[in-house]
TrEMBL record:
Topology versus the membrane: Multi-pass membrane protein
Protein name: Acetate uptake transporter
Family per similarity comment: Belongs to the acetate uptake transporter (AceTr) (TC 2.A.96) family.
Coiled-coil annotated spans: none
GO molecular function: acetate:proton symporter activity
UniProt keyword annotation of DNA damage present: no
Biological process according to GO: succinate transmembrane transport
Location of this chain's protein in the cell: Membrane
Organism: Novacetimonas hansenii (Komagataeibacter hansenii)
Keywords assigned by UniProt, alphabetized: Membrane, Transmembrane, Transmembrane helix
Transmembrane segments: 38-63, 70-92, 104-125, 132-151, 157-176
GO CC annotation terms, alphabetical: plasma membrane
Amino acid sequence: MEWNCGMTHNSAKADPAPLGLMGFGMTTVLLNLHNSGIVPMGGAILAMGLVFGGATQFVAGLLEYGNKNTFGMTAFMSYGAFWLSLVVLLFLPHWGLVAPSSPALMGSYLLMWGLFTAIMTIGTLRASRMHQVVFSSLTVLFLLLGLAEILEQPMLTVIAGYEGLFCGFSAIYLAAVELLAAQPGHVAAPVAVMVPPAEVAA
């Protein structure tokens, strides 16, 4: 039986996970610099969400499909779609195509992503500790942002922003570990991978 099936990379092809994780992590950091009140919203955040967090992550998911990695495919394609949909949500009202989403609707949108991420977090329980950190902190981030919208509490958004910075940098760290570990001569940094018990011969 293959340990940690669907999470590890078992292909002779290039591993798309570092690309997807870096796209997710860097975009999450940028957006949460805004949520925490450190920087204002601007074109750099939206462009990053559209191209690196959105389109590039989606491509990483397609590559994971080719590697027969269901978890990686679902994660990267879903969060790529999240970033694309978030940018569309912000742009459509400015184009006059739809009315802005109400706080209750926007909060519900974020909470649905929190529910999805909680399910994905369960899928990391047999993966590395860093996978668990990234997905569990992302679950908390969506929960805080959703409640901030529904309750109309700006301070919750600020708290979510700092928590989101932790989440984003965690994903960047994991991406760097997986990227450098694949390069000859590099010593892999720890991610606390769970090791299965050894089989004892009868």
